[in-house]
Records
---
Amino acid sequence: MMDPATTWIDVTATLAPDVTLLPGTQVLRATSVEAGAVIGPDTSLVDCEVGERATVRRTDATLAVIGADATVGPFAYLRPGTVLAANGKIGTFVETKNSTIGAGSKVPHLSYIGDATIGTGVNLGAGAITANYDDVAKHRTEIGDEVHSGSHNVFVAPVRIGEGAKTGAGAVIRKDVPAGALALSVAPQRNIEGWVEKNRSGTAAADVAARARSAQKAGDEPQGQEG
């Protein structure tokens, strides 16, 4: 216990030998922490189970299970029903709820994972969202083993991503993806030349754009040859 003055441990909590509690940690109610785990700083665990050698940093967790050698945080929010298997990762600014994340799977950053079952060896890109609520009922997302998703994906439940599948950046997944398939929902990019200068005249952006276009035009013009 690095700083007893800022550390709270309920009498109903259980700590195995060789647990490290860093400043600002609260181990509350029936939470159990196994040997070698490092909790904190600035972490609150309520009715959680933490496995051996797990690391939980700057995290708020309630009724969650964190497996051996798993890492959580910083700035993670684990709501009831979260189960993170051994060697898994729930990273920075990730919220989870009623979801199972398989062994070795990673949800590294900026994601919401609710009502989902994620297999082993999965890597979800930044900004993954399971859209689990349709304004009437909650639905589940199922992601098979060894799935790797692109950044900023939305999985519109109910939906299943098959084993070994891939998804492209920015994809909105509304239909099941077969095992080993690549799922894309990308429209062709369209560039409207001169839009800023025309529609944002007088702004700094329009000024620098005009200068850049003039410089590019001058560079594209053929140079005279010396006689």
---
Amino acid sequence: MEYGIQMYSVRDITKDDLRGALKRIADIGYRWVEFAGFFGHSAREVRGWLEEYGLKVSGTHTGLKELDEDFDATVQYHKTLGNRHYIIPGHDLSDQKKLDAFIEKVNAYAPVLAKEGIQLGYHNHSHEFQPNRDGSMIHEQLVCRTDLRLEIDTFWYYNATGFSAKGILERLKDRIDFIHIKDGFRGGEGKPLGYGQAPLREVYDTAKANNMLMVVESESLQPDGLTEARLCCEWLKAQEKQ
């Protein structure tokens, strides 16, 4: 099994030493990387580091505004990097008007990106599964009104609903290439894998059965990002023996 990590997990070192962070992530045992910023480095430079350390890019968390501000340069950066999954990490969709505008925009961008070999996706937090004040339901509309690829953050789903993400992973499996596998406590407190209360084993088994890449995101930096990354990798490897 190969696993990925969202680089936000080690944000305590990426800003000052992205190259070093990539090397140490590879040393821990991760083989896929999902970026959360490039800190001024060129795409060619970052791609060289990936090749040097035997890493592959699973996707990036990059906002919609980058496409709005300079579509051509943004697309070229991701193509040079070798990234095929442009994931919007969240957006202000707090009422129906904002939802409508966002959906119109991503429905316009998605086919253009597809022609460049890039799939457009969306990463959820908890609020997408809860009604806005006007009653609109964000995730439901993204599913029904767009063709976005869906990166399900399984902890935030659990936090919002109290349920394992197994059901939504099965229901939307044709729209899911990879998931965030994450642990923590309801209320939003994140923990490394195996240290919280999220129903991880069901998530692990479902992702494995459906060939979904599992991307670790551990956000609390307790005591630091690399320690959490190592604990998470150890938990994942232990599941292979069960």
---
Amino acid sequence: MPLMTLRDVLEPAVPQRYAVGSFNVTNHDFVEGVLAAAEETGTPVILSVAEVHFRYLDLGRFVPYLKQRIAQSPVPVVLHLDHGTKKETLVKAIHWGFSSVMFDGSTLEWDDNIAQTRELADLAHMAGVSIEAELGHVAGGEGDFEGGSEVDTGRYTDPEQAAEFVHLTGVDALAVAVGTVHGPYRQTPELDLPRLAAIRQNTTVPLVLHGGSGLTEADFQAAIARGINKVNFYTENALLAVEAVKEALAAGRPMTYPDLTAVGRGAITANTKRQIAVFGTQPM
């Protein structure tokens, strides 16, 4: 199936109140694990490659594989750049053939975030690519598994600013800060649901929840009921794959490297299927 954009897969999610999972992938087994879940459930999926994970990849070889594999998939798939922090990264992603990009200007001042996001939105739209941006700041870092992170309530998304930000930048989706963090949580997450509901009331674009790993099913359902349409998810899949490999090794039977990667891939598929069900993702 041809590559889809965020606009393609998220537009029906807004009125129907469901979310589509955006699953970060860092190698071929991660890709196959996620796509197996989407294909078995017949639902759309967003394959994300985070800028911070570029260190794991030879992108010149990995991206062509991704595009070929997506073209062979029977379900709608978005190829998304996650947390691009530099213009050059977004330009490269568009050149490589990503159908969607995220510019993360959440650490910038208001005026700078708007100006840079607007410039990159224009660039992406000229190339037929969708763009996501972030207002407020979701704490923590992708791939930071030591110690965990805690929320910064002072940097939550302002509902009134959200509407103005979307209007001034022209983004296709907005990532919001309402109580989640990237990577493991240092304490039990507590979502600011009234804030999220107010953001939804003020904006019409799909809303994005980063830091999905560590939330409960009830958390997800409450967030989706109040307007979340895209959920970013990585840490839990990465850790569950390791635990599955450890359990397989502890069983004591002879195993080869391909056996271990198959075990990890199977864990990713099983958990991704669970998350798709929790998100209520609908076939397209």
---
Amino acid sequence: MRIPSSRLLIVLGLMGSGLFMAFAQAPKPVARIEAFQLDPVHCMALFRVHHQGAGQFWGRFNDVSGTVLYPRDDSAAPEFDVKVAVNSIDTGTTKLDRTLMGPDFFNGIEFDTLSFKSTGAERVGEGRWKVQGDLVILGKKKPVEVDVEVTGVRGNPVVAKAGWEAILDIKRSDFGMNWGIDNGALGDHVRLIIGLEGESGPPSGR
């Protein structure tokens, strides 16, 4: 029996729409999470604090290590587990470095690392996240929120490099670092700017 062309078009149209709906409703593939090992040579943590009510004093830590779990397509938030070696502090002045390593500040003999581990995140734009986590300074753990920008991802199917910049503001007194606050010698509010770059190996399968 010959099917009228008008009916044939309707049938084909229904089939086509059904296939379209099937494709439209099919779940998108989820990118694999990869473990990016941080490269200390290309990582650093800068800090800034107000000095005697005048200028902003800057210093840095040169030894930053850890891991970032991240899918290359930014379909999920980066997960950070970062450590900073206190003895890598660098202000450009050896005497000042020793002072900051002392008990009034970072107390490097008793507490040799600072650390941050993320606990959650919220997307705020393409490649931009508000990351929540725990910051540990002087052995005291406090929840903080960090502005994170994905600065780039580049690689091949087997290995890749990725970078992130993180910015957060804290009160050092929250961690028990109080020297100079009462007399105005040194501000309480500190800005941290952390530049990270890591390299992944084969996908982890997550």
